[in-house]
Design a protein that fits this description.
The chain is mostly helical. The chain has 24 helices and ten strands. It is elongated and about 120 Å long.
Length: 758
């Protein structure tokens, strides 16, 4: 009959390729995953020795100056001779400091003069049944006051609160207790000089046997934290001048030693109470951020163009209305505060906080508004990419939940790392520390030489502990980056399957298959890339540590050089993360190793440098707008819920916590879109390089993306002819001709298609 057979739209070879990007894969960078496994084995060895030598309860419960952990039964460490070591502290769960300016987790804290680096005394810490609910404050020395403190300590001991060294009142303080029992008040005592306070309180007032003063405290993390505002109330009867001078002196000492303002502790106490009182509102705000993020993601997938422009418009409106509203609220609050005769500290703080927030929001909004104006003409390219990413996300909606799985893995890794860190931190060797306490009236015979000498216990770090910490810290960075890289490659693999499949209906379980590819073939590539980032992060951490330790002794030139080096490392880390992500994408659809992928993808990106700039700038900006919108809505919702609540002193703290959570949630959800857009672009660049839209070299990209290639009109024309041929074949098959059509008719319809004789 002279009938010719038309070459099908997809040949058998093309059909084989159509099941997904490079189905026949092989393992890549095997040596790297072996190194990673060996490294994890090293972390396991460290954990084993840490579990053998360490005790994290010393961190959680605190431990006293004799090595006893509060709240548990202790055994005396080997090689320790301190008489007060190895005590049963089951009924003594709280740690009290003789000197509250030294609140470090060490067993022995050195009390120092802020202007002198020479140790002058070691402070005492004791486990107590309950934190002090009374204050014993210093009184100006004078007739009748020389016995006041010891009389007070004896009185409170009988009431169930012992503030002096263990067994003091039953040993060399027994005679003192009998003498103090003879007096009904701490003032005007007439007794032997050996019973004076100065015989039992050291010159610096820190190493016992009794403290220089006791402050009413609250238990926070099993530590007795002083309440400085209660001290003022407790000491009013001693005279305002004495109290004020003492409080100022103590606060100045704290500032000098700790480099912070102690009034912040009071604010933190109120803030923690506000967080506890507003946990329902915080939960509502966090839940709202989840819903808002999910809604924006879904809307971006359905109506990408409208949503992108809508987000830009809403962000522009928010950038104008947000600062205006916050300045209005600040003005109203300030006007109301100015009208009040008595101004509460919390009200003043709230007004100042509003002003700070208004300034910060104004600066951010101005920057965002300027970016919206200058980048508005380049949104068109991103609209297409968002449409493609949205279409793919809607076809595999489960991909939105992969960041939750990633977060669980990272949290589990961080929890395990922190658990082992607790053992490493406490893996020191118990060691005696013997010294002689100095007293102002030691010549009065109150204490013997043996009683003035004291043996404390501290835990001495091993010589190699710094290397253990570096190894352990590198493990945290490498493990975290490993999980992040696995997530990126799995998501990229899912998007690649959609891109490189002509018939999208043939794509099945893309997310599961993407995860399978990573864990079956490419863990070595992931380990390689994540190791590079971890090395950079470790170097930055070491540099930051050096900066912190030498900040007081550095010259301005050295400080500037270190800051520049830190900045360069930060930029280098960002560049490497960008290259790594694109290398993971290339590996996802090509199956090549890390170095090959880096080389290939770098060439693709360099040949599309302008497009890369547009995508990274405009795309990142649009995603940032979405995150910004989620945080703004959550913050405004929190303000309306908490600002009128009379039980909340500092409403800004709960709102800030919820806003941080909202940003984390938004960043997590939008990261899927970010990876998807990058993946589609790399696939688009590779597709454009390998194909040209002519018969036999048809593009895999969609018609929407074809408008961005140079020969888009010709490619679309060829695609239209191909689809016409498909329809003709389908019509012929339906009519019973098994895909055979008249060659002459076909040549008239598609003159450029190759024909073969039967």
């Amino acid at each position: 009959m002279g009938v010719k057979k038309v070459t099908p739209f997809q040949t058998a070879e093309e059909d084989k390729k159509d099941v997904g990007p490079l189905k026949d894969r092989g393992c890549t960078d095997i040596i790297c995953i072996l190194i990673f496994i060996i490294f994890l084995g090293g972390m396991g060895v460290i954990a084993y020795f840490a579990f053998t030598l360490g005790d994290p309860w010393r961190i959680l419960n605190g431990y006293d100056s004799f090595g006893n952990t509060c709240g548990i039964k202790n055994t005396k460490p080997e090689g320790v001779t301190a008489n007060l070591a190895g005590r049963d502290m089951t009924e003594y769960p709280y740690l009290m400091y003789f000197d509250p300016t030294v609140m470090l987790p060490d067993s022995i804290n050195t009390l120092r003069d802020p202007t002198d680096t020479t140790p002058v005394e070691y402070t005492m810490m004791l486990c107590v049944k309950k934190c002090p609910d009374v204050s014993v404050y210093p009184i100006t020395a004078g007739t009748g006051t020389e016995f006041y403190k010891m009389w007070s300590y004896n009185k409170y001991r009988k009431e169930g609160q012992d503030f002096c060294e263990y067994e003091f009142w039953d040993t060399y303080g027994k005679e003192l207790a009998e003498e103090m029992d003879n007096h009904s008040t701490g003032f005007g005592i007439s007794a032997s000089d050996k019973f004076k306070d100065a015989n039992y309180i050291t010159n610096k007032g820190a190493s016992g046997p009794c403290p220089e003063f006791v402050l009413k405290s609250d238990p926070i993390m099993n530590r007795c934290i002083p309440l400085f505002d209660e001290l003022t109330n407790a000491a009013e009867d001693a005279g305002e001048e004495v109290t004020e001078d003492f409080v100022n002196e103590l606060e100045n000492k704290l500032n000098a030693l700790l480099g912070t303002n102690v009034s912040a502790s009071q604010v933190m106490q109120y803030a923690m109470a506000d967080v506890m009182n507003s946990y329902r509102e915080i939960a509502v705000m966090c839940g709202s951020s989840l819903i808002i993020s999910f809604i924006i993601i879904l809307l971006l997938g359905w109506i990408a163009q409208i949503m992108i422009y809508a987000i830009s418009i809403l962000a522009a409106v928010a950038c104008i209305a947000g600062p205006a509203y916050f300045w209005y609220v600040w003005y109203q609050a300030k006007e109301e505060l100015d009208k009040q005769t008595i101004k509460l500290e919390s009200q003043v703080d709230n007004v100042q906080t509003l002003m700070i927030y208004a300034i910060i929001i104004t600066v951010i909004c101005v920057v965002v508004l300027l970016l919206i104006i200058f980048l508005r003409s380049r949104v068109g390219l991103m609209v297409t990419l968002f449409k493609e990413a949205g279409f793919m996300v809607m076809r595999m909606i489960v991909i939105l939940f992969t960041p939750i799985i990633l977060a669980l893995f990272i949290l589990a890794w961080a929890a395990l790392w922190s658990f082992v860190s607790g053992y490493i931190y406490t893996a020191g060797t118990a060691t005696d520390l013997t010294f002689t306490r100095q007293y102002a009236m030691s010549d009065q015979g109150a204490l013997t030489d043996a009683e003035m000498n004291i043996t404390m216990v501290y835990y001495k770090d091993h010589d190699y502990i710094i290397y253990v910490w570096l190894y352990h810290l590198f493990g945290l960075y490498w493990g975290t980056e490993f999980f992040l890289a696995c997530h990126e490659m799995a998501i990229a693999g899912a998007f690649c399957q959609f891109y490189w499949t002509r018939d999208k209906r043939k794509v099945s379980f893309p997310v599961v298959r993407g995860i399978w590819w990573v864990f079956r073939y490419h863990l070595g590539t992931v380990a390689f890339g994540s190791c590079i980032i971890a090395i950079i992060q470790l170097i930055r951490t070491i540099l930051a540590y050096i900066q912190n330790k030498t900040k007081d002794s550095q010259s301005e030139v050295v400080k500037y050089l270190l800051m520049c080096l830190q900045c360069c490392l930060w930029c280098f880390e960002k560049v490497m993360k960008f290259i790594n992500r694109n290398a993971y994408i290339y590996t996802a659809f090509k199956g090549s190793n890390f170095c090959t992928s880096c080389k290939k993808v770098f060439g693709l990106l360099m040949s599309n440098l302008v497009r890369v700039g547009v995508i990274n700038c405009v795309g990142s900006f649009i995603l940032f707008i979405g995150k910004f919108l989620v945080v703004m809505v959550t913050g405004i919702l929190g303000y309306f819920m908490l600002s009128k609540d009379e039980q909340i002193e500092y409403w800004a703290i709960p709102v800030l916590i919820a806003s941080i959570f909202a940003f984390a949630v938004a960043h997590t959800f939008f990261s899927v879109y970010e990876i998807g857009i990058d993946t589609i672009f790399v696939c688009f660049a590779e597709d454009e390089t390998k194909n040209d839209g002519t018969p036999g070299r048809e593009y895999y990209m969609s018609k929407n993306l074809m408008q961005w290639v140079d020969n888009s009109s010709e490619a679309l024309k060829n695609l239209k002819r191909k689809k016409g041929q498909q329809r003709a074949q389908a019509k012929a098959a339906k009519s019973g001709k098994s895909g055979e059509v008249d060659a002459k008719q076909t040549e008239q319809m598609y003159p450029s298609l190759a024909m073969e004789d039967m």
